[in-house]
Design goal:
Radius of gyration: 57 Å
Shape: rod-shaped
Distance between the termini: 125 Å
Mean pLDDT: 75
């Protein structure tokens, strides 16, 4: 199919409509030889692509503000180096194409025996010349028509129409030749030595890199023509470098390419996402994560540096092979002593060939030299970036060590204070109840201190953490308000004058003896009756009831006695002083028998309170009411001996009342055993 297409184009090019311009037979081109093997060219370009992708992977490293500039410079340098590698590959492909064209021309000078690719190139060149000639004829006819006489104008107009039709046909043929040419380039799978083989491989490699796939070949000092993504220039084939290609490129035909677009941007994180890491205010967790991140980045940079060194060595090897031939050409001397015209002509031809060869070599030397500069710059940037990361890693490691040291030191200080607190409690507090309270308070304080020290040591952004913790605390306070009140009430209950196990208390209307005091609840053994006997029931109350309006009644600390009263109503005519004296002597006589036990409890009470209280003893006071003289006897009793003490006290008061002169009773003695 390909053979049929280009043969049709050649037949059309040789038809009579194109006979107006005779094709000039080109002189045989000079011999061209690629200074490095095509395999080495492809290997170098492939290695540069691999190195570029390794540099591109560095763009995914964690972003700091300090890394934005060197990372962008490194990417731009790597992209430029890759473009220069493709320029070198394209120039080598063009030189290889010229070498194959020269070999074919030497094998057979007949146009009918040209290879398929060369015939299409020549057809494209002839069509470009034909179009240029026809456009010139149209311009000349337009001028003639403008100044022609009326009788000649019709002939000139007809002639112009014929030339315009021929020009349209030539353009259509040029478009068909261009399509064949592009198809051959896209499907060219010849070996490296074949025409267009190396150029096709370079074009395939170029298409594998999105960042440079849309960019055209550069027009640098070495004069390589611009081309599109497929590596073509107008209607000419890439890599041939022939004058036909130049003519087709300058013809302005339908296949001429516009300016190449800029390379695509790399898929890198935006600079706005960069952050400034402050190790002096970071916690242990943040410092540890940053240290591992920096160490990983350093390893990646070290690998990229090693790969860059390998690319430099490969580049120096290729550049050395090319520059060696260039030095050989430059060292040729001019023989100015010869006077033979034939020898001078031969010398002139020799120098012309050397100049042409040097120009060909310059198309390889220039991109190789520029790539060497960019690779050296990339190596320097990698070294600088790695040194910067090393300095930041050392800084992070230093602050991490300081943070860990401060954290461990703070924990050690808290534990030392806890141990000192414990030993001081056992040494200076002899009361087991107060010792237990201080030890419980110590556990809570040490736990809170360790929590605060560890949280502030491990976590960064303490302000944000405090705000978050405040919101959580507010929510928990609302949801657990009863539990929090119970916990707070626990510390009120176990205070200096608080409740201890065995105490008799009245709480929330329940009287009982304390069995256990928990952090949230208190357990009471219920008591009832005048003698406060156990009912056999256990009452469980929340500590939060302490904050209710009802009062907490508790026996005095260190004391375990009740106050009982006996009321006697005497006749209104009774001598008040005599009655009080006789009743007081009777009560004291009974109280004297258990006074030491009451005084001992009073002494224990005095050790718990900070003010002096009167010694408990019987009291007698009288007042006159409508019934008569009401005399009240109040006395302390021990709980275990309350009944017998009341009986003895009643007996003593009756004896005192019956003595002469007898105290006349209006109402008998009334015993009130209520606790007071």
């Amino acid at each position: 199919m390909r053979s049929s297409l280009w043969q049709i184009c050649l037949v059309a090019c040789a038809a009579g409509i194109l006979s107006a311009s005779a094709a000039t037979t080109p002189s045989p081109p000079a011999a061209v030889e690629l200074p490095v093997p095509p395999e080495q060219v492809v290997s170098h370009v492939s290695r540069t692509i691999t190195w570029y992708r390794r540099i591109l992977a560095l763009q995914q490293l964690p972003v700091d503000f300090d890394d934005v500039v060197p990372r962008d410079r490194l990417y731009q340098t790597a992209l430029t180096s890759l473009q220069l590698a493709f320029d070198f590959g394209h120039a080598a492909g063009a030189m290889a194409g010229k070498a194959q064209t020269t070999a074919d021309a030497k094998a057979d000078d007949s146009p009918d025996s040209d290879t398929q690719g060369t015939a299409v190139d020549r057809a494209a060149a002839r069509m470009a010349d034909r179009i240029s000639n026809l456009q010139g004829q149209l311009t000349s006819l337009d001028e003639q028509i403008a100044h022609a006489a009326a009788k000649d104008k019709d002939t000139l107009v007809a002639r112009r129409g014929e030339v315009a039709a021929a020009l349209d046909l030539a353009k259509e043929i040029q478009g068909t030749v261009g399509q064949i040419q592009r198809f051959e380039e896209a499907t060219d799978t010849h070996a490296s030595g074949a025409s267009g083989g190396l150029a096709a491989q370079i074009a395939d490699l170029r298409r594998s890199v999105p960042e440079v796939r849309g960019a055209g070949w550069r027009t640098g000092a070495f004069g390589s023509p611009d081309a599109g993504a497929a590596g073509q220039s107008g209607a000419g084939a890439p890599g041939t470098g022939s004058g036909a290609n130049s003519g087709a490129s300058n013809s302005g035909g339908p296949n001429a390419k516009a300016a190449a677009p800029a390379p695509a941007a790399p898929p890198t994180p935006a600079a706005a996402s960069a952050e400034t890491f402050r190790p002096e205010s970071a916690g242990v967790i943040a410092l540890l994560g940053k240290w591992f991140s920096l160490e990983g980045a350093r390893r990646d940079l070290s690998d990229a540096t090693k790969q860059t060194d390998g690319l430099r060595k490969d580049l120096e090897k290729i550049r050395g092979e090319v520059t060696e031939e260039a030095r050989t050409l430059a060292r040729q001397n001019l023989d100015a002593t010869s006077t033979d015209p034939a020898q001078l002509t031969q010398s002139k031809l020799h120098f012309q060939q050397a100049a042409a060869r040097f120009k060909q070599l310059s198309t390889l030397i220039v991109p190789l030299g520029e790539q060497g500069v960019t690779v050296d710059n990339a190596h320097s940037l990698l070294e600088e970036w790695r040194d910067s990361l090393a300095a930041r890693t050392a800084t992070v490691a230093r602050y991490l060590a300081l943070r860990l040291g401060f954290l461990l030191g703070s924990v050690a200080v808290v534990l030392i204070i806890s141990e000192v607190w414990r030993r001081a409690t056992f040494r200076y507090l002899q009361d087991a109840r107060r010792r237990q309270q201080f030890l419980a308070l110590r556990r809570v304080a040490v736990g809170l201190a360790l929590t605060v020290v560890i949280v502030f040591g491990l976590v960064s952004e303490v302000g944000s953490l405090a705000t978050y913790a405040g919101l959580i605390t507010a929510g928990l306070a609302v949801a657990l308000q009863n539990v929090i009140l119970a916990v707070v009430a626990y510390f009120f209950l176990i205070g200096r004058y608080g409740v201890r196990v065995g105490d008799r208390i009245t709480l929330a209307g329940v009287t009982g003896r304390v069995v256990e005091i928990g952090l949230v609840r208190i357990y009471l053994m219920e008591l009832t009756g005048p003698q406060l006997r156990s009912t056999g029931r256990m009452v469980v109350l929340s500590n939060a009831v302490l904050f209710q309006p009802t009062a907490l009644f508790k026996q005095m600390p260190g004391g375990d006695f009740y106050w009982h009263t006996i009321t006697v109503v005497l006749a209104p005519t009774t001598d008040v002083a005599d009655a009080e004296k006789r009743l007081s002597e009777a009560a004291n006589s009974v109280y004297a028998k258990y006074r030491p036990a009451i005084e001992q409890q009073h002494a224990a009470l005095q050790r718990f309170i900070d003010f002096q209280t009167a010694l408990p003893e019987p009291e007698v006071y009288a007042r006159l009411n409508t019934k008569g003289l009401e005399c009240t006897v109040r006395y302390p009793v021990e709980p275990a001996q309350a009944a017998s003490t009341d009986q003895k006290m009643l007996q003593a008061l009756r004896e005192a009342q019956s003595k002469a002169p007898e105290l006349q009773l209006v109402d008998g003695p009334l015993l009130d055993t209520a606790e007071s």
